Structure formats: structure tokens, C-alpha cells
Amino acid sequence: MIPCKQTAEHPLHWKKLFAKSYVGIKQISDNLPDNSISLDKLDKIDSLFPIQVSQQLLDDHPLDGPVLMQYLPSLQELADLPGYTHDPVGDVTATMQPGVIKKYNHRVLLITNNTCPIHCRYCFRKDFPYPQSNPNTHQFKQALEFCQRDESINEIILSGGDPLSLEDESLNQLFKDIEKIPHIKTIRLHTKFPSIFPQRITENLITTLAECTLNKVCVFHINHADEISQEFCDVVQKIKQTNTTTLNQSVLLKNVNDSADILIDLSNKLFAAGILPYYLHKLDLAKGTHHFKVSDTQAKKLHQQMKNNLPGYLVPRLAQEIPGESSKSY
Ligand code: SF4
């Protein structure tokens, strides 16, 4: 993904704040626990997958804690291990036309843009060929024509990057264009913005959600309860008032959330914020992410402990995406 740290001045307030919020590599280097990565190694890591962390996160969380562990670079990213690939979930093979991914019956995923509010170091799409896969080249016209032609599709998933990286006007138009397709019943948004940059949830965005007559689902991406701030909870309430279903998907990550207590705490705090835990994903094996891997045996054990200590509606499904399969594996 292309980082936003160089974003030019923009009239929209949230974009200005967003662009100013990022810290440079030198500052990252100064902040790393024990200054363990030299600047040239950091440059190398950054060239493979740009480092993107906001000052706010550095101020709010301990450098070696479970939140920043997800976003600060590690030397281990430079290792090239067998089994770890550039396209771990088969996105490229499942691309029907630029930015349109269809893996499962009745739903398609649109890569709406290439920008995220932060770069998760375990990202499964870190090497996705965004330049060749931008459906926004023609304001999504061709992508939506694909959805129009295939009447078996009833749900469109807006992903990226992060769909909330689009400007409000573009999102509003996209929602309106999707609503015109008679067989589409549901729009789903996968977004990290509300937890990383809650200012993104503008009144215009809330109006777009409120005016949309389709089923709406918003899937957040939170891996640890320390990522749930009061500001995040406030914007979740605004989103819920638009009659949008709010879910969360997490990734099981070594040294971040690989403990039953942490996962149980996360489910309880998500519920208190009005969100149901949906998926607990096993790590997708993207290159340079092996240091986050939790073994399948350990994953099953942790999931069983969640089942033993939570009501069923707070136990996310332990899921893995295997390229070419017609559904996720549980
Ligand atoms: S939000 Fe999702 S797509 Fe963006 S960097 Fe994180 S894992 Fe990757």
C-alpha cells in the first residue's frame, strides 16, 4: 500500500489531520525498543512494505506493547521463509477484472483504493499489485458493470486498502451506484479507520450510511482490547445509529493476542462497545510475517478456552483462508 505521509494539502479536515499524523523513518528508528534496527535496514524494510505509524499511537502505547508490536517494523521481516508468499490468500488468481475479487458464491470484493490508515506488519495484502488493480480508474464503472451482469451476487464488500480512505463524495456516489443494482442487498465495509483515526467518521459519512436503504455491515479490525478507545466507542455508536450491523475480525498474532485472557477480554470489550466478534483469523502466510505465526495446535487450544469462558455469541469463528477453496476453513 502507498503510505499517506506525503499526502498534499486537502480541503477536508480529516485528510489534513491524517496526512500530518505520520512519523518519519528516522523518528521510528529513535523510538524502536533498544534501537535494534539500523537506518539502512529500516530503509530496506520500508521499501518492501512502507512503515506507517502515527504520532498518536506512539504517544498512547508502550513501544514493546501489543498495539505497537503490530505496526512497528522488525528485522524478521527481511527473512524469506518457505511457505510464505506474495499472495497468500490467492487474491490475484481470484481477480476477475481490475479490483474485483470473486472467491465465494453470491459476493464480490472491491479493492476500492490502495491506502490504509496504518500499515499492519502482518498484512496479507502487502504485495498486492495495486497499480494494476484499481477499479476507481473509471469511478468504479466497470467494476459495477461486472456486479450488474452477475445476478447471483447479492453482497458487495468494499475493501482495499481501506474504503474509508476514499473521500466522502466518492463513497457517497459509490453507495448510490450500488443501490441502483437491483440484486444487491448488502454493502459491507471492512475498515481499520475508526480505531486508528476516529476523526474519519464525519457527519457526511454518517449521512451516507443513514440514507443507504440496503443492508449495511461494518467490519472493524481490532486485535487487542488496548485498541478500543473512548473515541472509537463514540464513533461506533454513531455508525450503529445508521442501522448498520457492527462486527469485528481479528488476526491471531504471536506476542500480540496469543493468550486466552487477552482474547476473552477483547470479546468482552468489543461487546461493551456494541460490536460482535466475527472472525479470529489464523495468520495468512505473507512474506516477512513468520514472527507473528501461532501454531495451529495453539490456535485450537486458545479457541477452546474462549468457548469455555464466553457465551457462544462472543466466540469468533477461528478461520483460515485457503486459496482456491469455496469458503473459509473453520
Ligand atoms: S488494514 Fe488490512 S489491508 Fe490495511 S495494512 Fe492492515 S491488514 Fe493490510
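^ iron/sulfur cluster complex. The chain has two domains: 13-78, 95-319. The first strand starts at residue 95 and ends at 97.
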